[in-house]
Amino acid sequence: KGNGMIGNIYSMGLALQALEATGKFYAPREWDCAQAFSMVFAHDYQHPMAIAQVLPALVGRSYLDAAGLDCAVTKDASPSRQLPLSPVLGTQGIPRASILVHYSITNKLQGKHFNYSISVTVPSGSTLLQVMKVAAEEEPQTFSFQTEQTSWGTYVTSIHGLAASTDDRTYWQFLSAGNALDEGVGTYKPHDGEHIQAVFSTY
After folding, report:
1. Binding-site sequence positions for cyanocob(III)alamin
2. Where in the sequence is the domain holding 22, given as residue range(s)?
């Protein structure tokens, strides 16, 4: 992409590793290394898997380097570049301001179609998963959902009783202003007045 993104923010780690590792052997086209790294530095990575994939590229290495690693030499070495640490958000004892998030679920793909919407109030800095939990508490018959934990975080498997299926190639896609979210429900933090859509989709 023109802004330095390669795929999405979660594919950046492996993409940067691949470009660094293979750059000596071929150059299918020029790429702006600094622009790509600026995208990585601007993102607040939360998932251990994403961090594990982007960290080698940040120190100019790839997973391929592990095969020739000399532990005696690298034991005391420190990386030349470091991933910036994120400050802890919020202060204990002080309530956070509330935000209003509009949340809708839509199925126009299978069975009985539906489209439901709700507006919920959550503390500022809440994740989309927290928004979904509040919606499910307020209207459990409509906004109930199920999740499973993966190495990439929380994955939504079912909403309103409609489950995603690898056999049918279906999944729940989350959108904001018509654009797919580049983070999962466990890390994405909606802003005040944002409309989040969960749309039953196919791939």
Report:
1. 8, 53, 155-156, 181, 203
2. 11-68
Residue 115 and residue 188 share a domain: yes
> Is the entire prediction scored with pTM above 0.85?
no
What strand order describes the sheet that includes 145-150?
145-150, 153-159, 162-163
Say how many domains are in the chain.
2
End-to-end CA distance of the chain, in Å?
21
- Per residue of the chain (203 residues), what is the pLDDT tens digit? 667 777 777 777 888 888 777 766 656 566 667 777 787 777 777 777 777 877 787 777 777 666 666 666 545 544 444 444 433 344 455 567 999 999 999 999 999 999 999 999 999 999 999 999 999 999 999 999 999 988 778 999 999 999 999 999 999 999 999 999 988 999 899 999 999 999 999 99
57 and 129 inside one domain: no
Which residues are known binding-site members?
A: 8, 53, 155-156, 181, 203
